[in-house]
């Protein structure tokens, strides 16, 4: 699987937060992308909205789970039957 490193296009000086937090916050929420904060012209921090962070962490957890499953399949670990899993999920949804 070929993954490309995302290119961060939002770069702001640290003064952007100090001088106009509301606009900076709005940028983070509207773009849902990380913003690089520079200090003395050098990248210092990366900031993103809480929602964007939660989505990033969920994708990371999903990727880890899929990697574990791939390793199990490669090792020949027996898998559960699709129908069994689907029925189990359907029961959990109905009783939620």
Automatic annotation (TrEMBL):
Source species, domain of life: Bacteria
SUPFAM superfamilies: YefM-like (SSF143120)
Transmembrane portions of the chain: none
Functional summary from the UniProt entry: Antitoxin component of a type II toxin-antitoxin (TA) system.
The family this protein is said to belong to: Belongs to the phD/YefM antitoxin family.
Name this protein carries in UniProt: Antitoxin
Protein species of origin: Acetonema longum DSM 6540
């Amino acid at each position: 699987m070929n993954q490309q490193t995302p290119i961060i296009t939002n770069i702001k000086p640290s003064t952007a937060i100090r001088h106009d937090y509301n606009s900076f916050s709005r940028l983070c929420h509207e773009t849902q992308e990380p913003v690089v904060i520079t200090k003395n012209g050098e990248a210092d921090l990366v900031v993103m909205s809480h929602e964007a962070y939660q989505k990033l962490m969920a994708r990371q957890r999903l990727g880890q789970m899929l990697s574990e499953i791939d390793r199990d399949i490669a090792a020949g670990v027996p898998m559960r039957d699709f129908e069994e899993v689907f029925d189990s999920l359907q029961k959990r949804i109905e009783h939620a």
